[in-house]
Amino acid sequence: MTEQTQHSPSRTAVVSGAVLAGLLVVGVVVASRFLPDEPAADAPRVHDGPVGLVPVDAPDAGAPQCGALLAALPDRLPNGDKPLARLPIAEPAPVGTMVWGDRVGDPVVLRCGLGKPPELTSTSALRDVSGVRWLPVDGEVSATWFAVDRGVYVALTMPNGVGTGPLQTVSEVVGRSLAVQEVRP
Predict the structure, then answer these.
(1) pLDDT tens for residues 96-143?
(2) Comparing C-alpha atoms, which of 156, 124, 152, 115 is closest to residue 139?
(3) 42 belongs to a structural domain
(4) At what angle do helices 64-72 and 165-177 cross, to 10 degrees?
(5) TM segments (predicted)?
(6) Is 34 a member of any domain?
(7) How far is residue 19 from each of residues 22, 30, 51, measured CA to CA in Å?
(8) Which CATH number fits the domain that encloses residue 170?
């Protein structure tokens, strides 16, 4: 029979390991209590390339009315003392879309040729801006305004904190570019 020698770790190694494990647990607990789970919602985002847009159902995006509207829209939208410049859209760019922003924060997005907004009913509270009837739909971080009295539906999504300049300017262009028609709830 051979004799096996057992080597046990020294008392110093065991104590050191226990202390390090304890410090790791304390560090994780402290970090989880003081560090946010996600970046702050109001933290500015910097856009350094084309803006990505998810495709949405826009059956009339290729309609001549949308082409005329997009051609008439300005390269800049007013926003207080910081105008919003037109931004490039990442390929494949959805048809009937345009984006403006300042490369910090969420952009203003226009989509033309959408289907009827489900929020549009015979009792919807519409707002008139420069002769265009809009259906505002508020979200957590943005509001989308749907032009509902034209031959095609137009949506303008603006992040919270953007003034009324983009809506006013787009309303004026919609009013000049697209013929009025009855609201179709």
Answers:
(1) 999 999 988 999 999 999 999 999 999 999 999 999 999 999 999 999
(2) 156
(3) no
(4) 130
(5) 12-35
(6) no
(7) 5, 16, 49
(8) 3.40.1000
